[in-house]
UniProtKB/TrEMBL annotation, chain A:
It comes from Tritonibacter horizontis. The keyword Ubl conjugation does not apply. This is Anti-sigma-E factor ChrR. Keywords: Membrane, Transmembrane, Transmembrane helix. The lineage of its organism: Bacteria, Pseudomonadati, Pseudomonadota, Alphaproteobacteria, Rhodobacterales. The chain crosses the membrane at residues 12-33. InterPro entries: Anti-sigma_ChrR (IPR012807), Anti_sigma_zinc_sf (IPR041916), ChrR-like_cupin_dom (IPR025979), RmlC-like_jellyroll (IPR014710), RmlC_Cupin_sf (IPR011051). It comes from the Bacteria. The gene is chrR. The keyword Membrane applies.
From TrEMBL, chain B:
Belongs to the sigma-70 factor family. ECF subfamily. The keyword Nucleotide-binding does not apply. Transmembrane segments: none annotated. This is RNA polymerase sigma factor. Residues 176-228 form the RNA polymerase sigma factor 70 region 4 type domain. It comes from Tritonibacter horizontis.
Length: 211, 238
């Protein structure tokens, strides 16, 4: 595996550490940090700053019985929480989004497939499967889109993206990604764009945007 | 905020005691603590049959308490962690706009999580406050949004025998330097840092905020970061 060269922008790491990042972007951050030691160290450094602020936060008196309630709870039995582990190309946070099951792909034409992981008012997350050598026609972005490679690689006007790399596409980027020859390129794509029909987009690719 | 009037907080004897305690503690960060207090820090080294002696004046109090909780399930030490962090956690959670009762429910949940997940605490990678900060963010989001926040994979626990007291101390030193750097910020910058790191700005706002002194912060944490990077490179995953 080649080294990861395209990372999560710092403002997204800070927003993740601070808890202000939406759930779909949090998925991309958690997936990338699972695979990228540099971003893990960077995130933990931001958390160090958060910890420093916690130390200096003005205290609020807690209810008198809170301490007793917590101490009483120490020995209480707790249901084991469901945990997910990395499986094949999918890091644990992606496995959690898949609820531990293999992806159920839906064909989009031209051999391209996708699986929607979540689709809410604040954005959407999906897995994309693009056969080796296959291009995705020119398209733009409504909002911010992060695309992280899980298998294979793709190239576009901005460079080459291999396993673990994240492409950050904002409203200004018009690009034409092409999967490299070889194994299919599988990506995690998250966006906060309102996914809606765009007449300019080739008919075949409408599902990409409409979902 | 849980309390509308700052003046009330000012005259609240408990809050006042906390402030004095905090001032004292901040001072203690800067001077060498005295006294012969010596504690045996129980790390995994003990499990391997060795004893690493670390003096009490070397590790921060909170680190000692957390290690006692992790390695001995020490409830007295946990009580001290509670007394130290619960009011701060409540302050931080209230700042995000939740009512006091719900904030306390989250504090309770966070402190119980600290107890249950203590074995994941690695003083060579995170200070207690940073570790609890991250737990608090996760639990608050899980509870408020009623969904599980996506979290990175846990690194496989480093063999406890590898925990290097020098590294723990270096990290604590970096954190003190970071705290000192924060104190030197201009008030407006300080406000922006708090807003960014306590969840009051979106990622787009953080990116657009040119007054955010990230350069200052980063130059302070760079050393610790490099060290952390080096450590992580050699760590296997689950």
């Amino acid at each position: 595996m080649t080294a990861i060269t395209h990372h999560i922008p710092d403002e997204l790491l800070i927003a993740y550490a601070a808890g202000s990042l939406s759930s779909v972007f949090s998925l991309a951050v958690a997936a990338h940090v699972s695979m990228c030691d540099d971003c893990r160290a960077q995130l933990e450094a931001h958390e160090a700053l958060g910890g420093t602020l916690l130390e200096e936060t003005p205290s609020e008196t807690v209810a008198e019985d809170l301490r007793a309630r917590v101490l009483d709870g120490l020995d209480a039995p707790v249901a084991a929480e469901k945990t997910y582990h990395r499986s094949g190309i999918f890091p644990a946070p992606v496995m959690a989004a898949l609820r531990g099951l293999p992806p159920k792909w839906k064909p989009l034409g031209l051999g391209v497939r996708q699986m929607i992981l979540s689709h809410t008012a604040e954005g959407s997350a999906r897995l994309l499967y693009i056969p080796g050598g296959q291009g995705v026609p020119d398209h733009g972005h409504n909002g911010l889109e992060l695309t992280m490679v899980l298998q294979g690689a793709f190239r576009d006007e901005t460079g080459r993206y291999g396993v673990g790399d994240v492409e950050v596409a904002d409203g200004e980027l018009e690009h034409e990604p092409v999967a490299e020859d070889g194994p299919a390129c599988i990506c995690l794509a998250v966006t906060d764009a309102s996914l809606r029909f765009r007449s300019l987009v080739p008919r075949l690719l409408q599902p990409f945007f409409r979902i | 905020m849980c309390r509308p009037a700052a003046s009330r907080d000012f005259f609240d004897p408990v809050a006042m005691a906390w402030r004095i305690f905090n001032m004292f503690e901040a001072e203690a960060d800067l001077v060498l603590e005295e006294g012969p207090l010596t504690a045996t820090v129980v790390s995994g080294a003990n499990r391997a049959g060795e004893r690493s002696k670390v003096t009490g004046k070397d590790y921060a109090e909170t680190t000692m308490w957390m290690l006692a909780v992790r390695d001995h399930r020490d409830k007295v030490a946990f009580g001290r962690l509670f007394d130290h962090f619960a009011p701060r956690l409540k302050g931080m959670i209230c700042r995000s706009g939740l009512p006091a009762a719900q904030a306390e429910d989250i504090v309770q949940d966070v402190m119980l999580t600290v107890w249950r997940k203590a074995d994941l605490f690695d003083p060579g990678r995170a200070q207690v406050a940073a570790w609890i900060f991250q737990i608090a963010r996760n639990r608050q989001i899980d509870i408020v949004r009623k969904e599980r926040r996506p979290v990175p994979e846990e690194l496989r626990q480093v063999e406890q025998t590898d925990v290097d007291a020098a590294q723990v101390l270096a990290l604590e030193q970096e954190t003190r330097a970071l705290r000192a750097a924060l104190k030197r910020l201009k008030p407006a910058q300080r406000v922006m840092v708090e807003r960014a790191y306590l969840g009051e700005l979106s990622h787009a706002e953080i990116k657009a905020e040119t007054g955010l002194p990230l350069g200052t912060i980063k130059s302070r944490i760079r050393l610790g970061l490099e060290k952390l990077r080096h450590e992580l490179k050699g760590t296997d995953r689950k």
